Amino acid sequence: MPALAEASGHARLMDGVYRRQRHIYDLTRKFYLLGRDGLIAGLDVPAGGSVLELGCGTGRNIALAAERFPDARFHGLDISREMLATARQRMEREHIGDIVTLAEADAAAFDAQALFARSRFDRVFISYSLSMIPPWRETIAAGLDCVVPGGTLHIVDFGRQERLPLWFRSGLRRWLAAFHVRPRDALHAVLESECEKRGASLRFDSLFRGYAVSAVIRLPG
Predict the structure, then answer these.
(1) What is the mean pLDDT of the chain?
(2) Dist CA 35 CA 37 (whole Å)
(3) Is the dihedral of CA 19, 62, 32, 145 positive or negative?
(4) Which residues form the Methyltransferase domain (predicted)?
(5) What does pTM read for this prediction?
(6) Which residues fall within 8 angstroms of residue 84, CB to CB, at 6 or more apart?
């Protein structure tokens, strides 16, 4: 029950944050959500493959991935009804609703089979969502549970900004906190732990002097 209450509270928070912001979200975020396009290009979805995005927001990433990999099938979930409303409008506008399925769900605790009539996906990705999801460790585990053997989980998010000036790092983190965003400084260690438990391999890269990080976990096939 506490977990359900926390998820419900987070859903209300996200709806409140994005009720108006969703209309300008993509226009403003392109200037500081760096590395998203690189993640999409690196998905390397097999022909006829399946893709799941956790925290799909406005559907911006799914739409770009669908353009790049038109033979794949895409699935996205988000806890915010407001963001999903925008995402569904995008899919209709871009005429890709036939290859995209969206659902309202908690990225940290969801039933993929019930939502999408499939339990495993060739590619799962999380783009700038872990820094907004309180149970972010559980979200990583849930994402990995949905990856087929030999498939991959892809992540991009804010990094530790370790090679940027202290004044910039401090200012950035104060500004992000105003939007309920918290960089996950322990991300690398958590991913290493998950890989060790699952016998998976990890590629972890620091981008833009630590402003962002990207990670790819490949499960054993």
Answers:
(1) 90
(2) 6
(3) positive
(4) 51-151
(5) 0.87
(6) 56, 78, 102, 104
